Protein: Copper-exporting P-type ATPase
Amino acid sequence: GTPTALMVGSGIGAERGILIRNGEAVQTLKDIKVIAFDKTGTLTYGKPVVTNIITLLSNEKEILTVAASIEAGSEHPLAHAIIEKAKEEKIKILKVSKFEAITGKGIKGQLEQDFIFVGNRKLMDDEQIDITKIEDQMAELEKEAKTVMIVAKNKKAIGLIAVADDLKPNAKQAILAIEKLGIKTAMITGDNKRTAQAIATKAGISHVISDVLPDGKVDEIKNLQKQYGLVAMVGDGINDAPALKQANVGIAIGTGTDIAIEAADVTLVRGDLETILSAIKLSKAIFKKIK
Ligand code: ADP
Ligand code: MG
Structure:
């Protein structure tokens, strides 16, 4: 019967690097219509590296000093990238007051008399900081799949910092194989449309949902469910947890946060996206035998 088959399935799954927390979800996996992927840390390594510093109203050293000092208070992977670069360049980190993270947009803080913002277009829009003159430069970098942060001081953009976060090596193969099974793939990200599209194209993902604020991921899963039926979500972050619960099958990346793993039905122990395929095949194998 089902429990025995599941136990055998669990054993085989474990061997293949798939940890099953919820057997019912594994049964659902064989009928899934869409698999939605988080971008950062799921499709990509989640370890962005600074690739470009563009000077607008300042020099490279000041831009990096200001940005790294503010980002020193942030846990975000983008912050790590900037701090690493500052370390490489032997930049001195300055003391910041009134630090505040603005979810899905960036961060702000005060450096002596100066008001600093580091973040995306949404943040600059909120703060009425004009970026029309730098749109073309940003677009150019974003087409290269880079994420661009604007560094602003006292309501003026002083520089841009671009980072790249590479796709995991077998992401493309995994997506291709999933699509071959007739399952649609989607990407959900807080990043901007152009960067999201560039990465999705590299990965072979057809459906891109970008500019999603952290709270919005659940609604995007609900939309996919309305449109297509059974949906699986793959994610690694704290802010993926509610979406992993909303999905019919939540799949966590084993190298991700504990909160995501606890919210998920299945964990890919090694974070290897190709094991999703093994999980689907396993689901089909187990539950065919039962019928
Ligand atoms: P994701 O996990 O898809 O990258 P987030 O909601 O964490 O989505 O971030 C969305 C966007 O908000 C980032 O692409 C970036 O533009 C901006 N952002 C978030 N945190 C920071 C930060 N610490 N510094 C600069 N920009 C940030
Ligand atoms: Mg992530």
In short: Residues 49-164 form a domain with the Calcium-transporting ATPase, cytoplasmic domain N fold (CATH 3.40.1110.10). The two ends are 9 Å apart (CA to CA).
